[in-house]
Design goal:
5-stranded mixed β-sheet, rod-shaped
C-alpha cells in the first residue's frame, strides 16, 4: 500500500516506522503532504465535475472518482494501523496490487476528464517508492506520456466523440502540455530520490543508535558480571582468611580437648575448650562484620600493631594447647604511621593466614612477624624456622584448603603491592609483603631478600 511506499524501500532497507526522532518529523511531513496533495487534487477535480453539471457518462466519472478515493483511503488506513501495531494485518505484500488499482482508476478518469490528469504528480511519488527503481522510472515516464496524451486529447487533438476539433491547437498551446508534465515528473523523481536518501540516512542513524544501545547494554552486563566475580573473589579471600581459619582451629582444639579428656586431664581440656570458645566468639564477630563491612573487628578495637601483638599471643596459646612449643613475637621497625584501612586489613589478614599455616603445617619452634614503616611504603615479613616447602608446588587442594597464598597474592595485587615467598624443604619460610603508600600507588617495592625477616 502507500504505507509500503513510505515505510519500506524495496532495496532491502528496513521499515522507517522505527526511524530516529530527528528524522521522523521530516519524513512524517512528507507523508502527510503526499496524502493531502492527492486529496486536494482529487477534490478540485470533483468540484469542477459537479459544477459543470453531471449528465451522460458524468455519473460514471463521479463513481470512478469516489472509488479511487475509497481505494486510496483504504490503503493509507491499513498502513497506519499496521505501523501503530505491527501485529495487525500487514498490507505491504499487496502494495503493488493496490498501486495497480489506483493507477487503473486514474487512467479511466483521465480518459473521461482532463481535470484528473494532475493526480499524476502524487502518483509519481507512489510509483517511485512502491516499485523498485528499475520499474518505477519507466512507469513514471509512461505516466508522463499518458498525461501529455490526455491533455492533447482533451484540449486540441481528437475529441472524446471521435470528431476532430474545429481548430487545431497551436504550437504555443501544445508546448506547455509537454513541458508541464515533463518538468513535474522530473521534480517528482528528484524529490523522491531525495526522500529516499533522507530515509536511508535516518535508517542508518536508527541502526547506529540501536547498535550503541546494544553495546551499552552488553558493556553494562559485562561490568556487572566482572563486579560479581570480583565480589565473589573478595568474599572467598575474607572467608578463607577469617572464618575458615577459625573453624579449622576450632576443629583442632576440639580434638585436643577430647584427647585431654581421654588422658584424664580435665584442666588441659578446660583450657583448650576456652580457646575453642574464644575462637568461636572471634569467628562470630567476623561473620557479623561481613554484614556491615569487611574490615577486621580486631582493627576496630585498636591499631594494627596491637592487633598483631594479640595475634602472636593467640598463635602461641593455640600452639601450646596442641602441645607444640611455638614461640611467636612481633618486631616493629620505624615509627608507626597511620595506615589506610585497606592496608591494615590486608596486612592483618596476611599475618593471620601465614601464622595459621605455621601453626598447622610448619612444625616450627619460632615465628617472627616484622612490621616495617619505611616512609613511602610499609613492609611485613613473616618468618618461621619450620620444615619449609616448595612454593612452586603450593596449589589449592581438592578439599578447598591450600588457598592461602593465592588469596594473599590477590590482596596485595589489589593494593599495587608485592608479595614474595622464599622457602625450601628443611629451610623454613619467609613471606615478604611490600605495600606502597601515599599518592604513588605504583611506587617500586623492594624485593624481599633471602632471610630478610629472619632474626
Amino acid at each position: 500500500m502507500e504505507g509500503d511506499a513510505v515505510n519500506t524501500v524495496h532495496n532491502g532497507t528496513p521499515q522507517a516506522g522505527t526511524e530516529p526522532t530527528g528524522a521522523a518529523g521530516i519524513l512524517r511531513v512528507l507523508r502527510v503532504s503526499l496524502h493531502v496533495g492527492f486529496a486536494v487534487l482529487l477534490l478540485v477535480a470533483l468540484v469542477r465535475l459537479l459544477t459543470g453539471g453531471i449528465h451522460g457518462t458524468g455519473w460514471i466519472t463521479l463513481l470512478l472518482a469516489l472509488l479511487l478515493a475509497a481505494v486510496y483511503l483504504l490503503g493509507t488506513v491499513l498502513e497506519k494501523r499496521h505501523a501503530a501495531r505491527p501485529a495487525r494485518f500487514d498490507p505491504r505484500p499487496y502494495s503493488g496490487w493496490w498501486l495497480g488499482g489506483v493507477s487503473l482508476l486514474w487512467l479511466l478518469l483521465i480518459w473521461a476528464s482532463a481535470d484528473f490528469v494532475w493526480l499524476a504528480f502524487p502518483l509519481f511519488f507512489l510509483q517511485l517508492h512502491v516499485l523498485r527503481r528499475r520499474v518505477a522510472l519507466p512507469a513514471i515516464a509512461l505516466s508522463t506520456l499518458l498525461v501529455i496524451v490526455a491533455l492533447w486529447f482533451h484540449n486540441g487533438g481528437v475529441a472524446p466523440s471521435g470528431q476532430a476539433t474545429a481548430e487545431p491547437a497551436s504550437v504555443a498551446l501544445q508546448l506547455p502540455m509537454v513541458l508541464g508534465p515533463a518538468f513535474g515528473a522530473a521534480f517528482a523523481v528528484v524529490t523522491g530520490l531525495a526522500y529516499r536518501a533522507l530515509f536511508l540516512e535516518a535508517e542508518n542513524q536508527r541502526l547506529a543508535a540501536e547498535e550503541l544501545r546494544r553495546t551499552r547494554a552488553e558493556l553494562a552486563r559485562t561490568q556487572h558480571d566482572a563486579g560479581t566475580l570480583a565480589e565473589r573473589t573478595r568474599l572467598a579471600r575474607e572467608i578463607h582468611d577469617t572464618l575458615a581459619q577459625g573453624l579449622s582451629s576450632i576443629v583442632l582444639m576440639g580434638r585436643a580437648a577430647e584427647k585431654a579428656l581421654d588422658d584424664g586431664d580435665p584442666a588441659v581440656a578446660r583450657e583448650r575448650l576456652r580457646i575453642v570458645r574464644d575462637t568461636a566468639a572471634a569467628n562470630l564477630a567476623e561473620a557479623r562484620n561481613f554484614v556491615r563491612a569487611l574490615q577486621s573487628p580486631d582493627l576496630e578495637d585498636g591499631s594494627l600493631v596491637a592487633s598483631l601483638h594479640r595475634l602472636c599471643e593467640t598463635t602461641e596459646a593455640e600452639a601450646a594447647a596442641r602441645g607444640a612449643g611455638l614461640r611467636c613475637r612481633l618486631d616493629v621497625e620505624g615509627p608507626p604511621a597511620e595506615l589506610p584501612g585497606a592496608h591494615q586489613t590486608a596486612l592483618l589478614r596476611a599475618a593471620q593466614a601465614s601464622l595459621a599455616n605455621v601453626r598447622v603445617h610448619a612444625q616450627a619452634s619460632s615465628a617472627v612477624v616484622t612490621l616495617s614503616f619505611l616512609g613511602p611504603e610499609v613492609a611485613m615479613d613473616i618468618f618461621d624456622d619450620g620444615i619449609g616447602f616448595d612454593p612452586a608446588a603450593a596449589t589449592g587442594r581438592p578439599d578447598g584448603s591450600g588457598y592461602g597464598l593465592t588469596s594473599l597474592r590477590e590482596r596485595v595485587a589489589a593494593l599495587h603491592g608485592q608479595l614474595d615467598v622464599e622457602s625450601a624443604p628443611g629451610e623454613g619460610t619467609v613471606v615478604a609483603i611490600r605495600l606502597p603508600l601515599g599518592e604513588a600507588p605504583g611506587f617500586p617495592a623492594a624485593s624481599a631478600q633471602a632471610g630478610g625477616g629472619r632474626p
